Structure prediction request, 170 residues.
Amino acid sequence: MVVAPLTPLEVGDRFATRDWPLHVTVVPTFFSRASVTQVATALAASCGSLPAVTAVVGADALFGPRQTVPVSEVVMDPALRAAHAVLVEGLGDIEPESPGFWGEGFRAHITHRRDHRLHPGDIVRLTQVTLVDMEPGQPLGMRAVLAVSPLLTPGPAVGAESSPRAQGFT
Prediction:
């Protein structure tokens, strides 16, 4: 899966499934026959043309197979939709775990954590994406950051950083 963390991550970072750092899901879980190196290289190449994205947190919703996972949806503006499309295309021959949540069905979101969440109207700046191993075989429900790619960082979006609700995340 490819996520845009709200605080920077590094290759090798590990965390328990229940303790995911806050992040925007940019490319939902997928399968690939390519090696991690090949997928990471494709991700880096795609990010070379993508600008950082300033996004607005939208309404709360429930996701997951039984609609029991609390999330904050992220307003799907053209920049976020374009980032999703560029990354999916750039990753090449990958197979989505849930095809209905890709393309037009893609719904960017931030899963709530037990101790932290964002609220409607909060503004986040997405400056990096990470490839996270979602293979169930990870020890004790752990997840591992396999690759990190920065997004191009143009100047601040007009008005976004001056908002009283702007988040200091990168």
In short: Residues 155-170 have pLDDT under 50 and may be disordered. DSSP finds two helices and eleven strands in the chain. The CA atoms of residues 12 and 104 lie 32 Å apart.
